[in-house]
Amino acid sequence: MLYFKTNVSVPLSYYKSGQFICEKNWQHKSFILENDYEIIIGIKGIIYIKQNEDKYEVNPGDVLFLLPGMLHSGYAPSDEGSSFYWLHFLCTSNEIILTKSEIYQEIISILNTESLHEDILLPTFLSLIDTGKVFIYIKQILHIANSLYYTHLSTDYLVSELAIELTQQFINSFSLSVTKENSVNKRFFQILEWIRVNVTKDISVQMVAKKSNFSADHLTRLFKKHIGMSTLQYINSIKINKAKELLLNSEKSIKEISYTLCFKDDKYFMKLFKKYEGITPTQYRDAYPKTYINTDSSDPLIPLPSYLSHNK
């Protein structure tokens, strides 16, 4: 399963929507989305859709999220009278596709902080905890999209609200599954958060095992089961993600970043970075525009814009 993330401080852009009712032996045709995304929400019966090679059965209350650039097609006919809502939208901010381990980190971080967020997180497939709000939003969208409103912003904001509601239900279902699982799995998610918080320390598999009261072998089995990688691979992936952040948002040298993240030496750090990212740290830094901001307004070379130079 894939996971989608984008910022909605500027609302998503509504494209088109509708409700579809299946005729006898109807099966979804093959198609590829170009730049838009599609949300399918089951109302009645079962809709059978593939995204590339992944097969999904969309039952009432299920949400299927289709990504651009992938082949979508029906793989079995639906019963006559089966129905679903469909909605297409465009993003107004950069989109990111996350892996299972990355979405775990995102949600764990959200659950362990009280700050508000401006991103939506949508899985490829979600079974709704509460269909009420979602159905209200989609019906409002359909109504307004077919009315002569003087601005498109109404549908844009409603689509964004729908996406926020889906994100909240996704986070709630994740949290609920963790709560229902046994104490071993609860401790596992606490371990993920501990590694994230202590990313700048010299973390070893043995240290994590001791911290969690698991054997190193059992811990690795848990990592393989939940996120598909070993304990060491996960530790390294978190450190590399932090390195990417430092490369773009600080003026630290490669050697300083290596030291900050407690790698053995900068040569080992560069080798590991290339293994995980396919390019060297220097190439990564050069491939993106600088995002480092000098917050010292007294620096004459980097004057603050007028709208940032006053206290709020």
From TrEMBL:
Single annotated GO MF: sequence-specific DNA binding
Ranges where the HTH araC/xylS-type domain occurs: 189-287
Record SMART domains: HTH_ARAC (SM00342)
Organism listed in the record: Clostridium estertheticum subsp. estertheticum
Any Pfam family hit: AraC_binding
Gene3D superfamilies according to UniProt: Homeodomain-like, Jelly Rolls
Keywords, in A-Z order: DNA-binding, Transcription, Transcription regulation
Signal peptide: none
Coiled coil: none
Protein name: HTH araC/xylS-type domain-containing protein
Source superkingdom: Bacteria
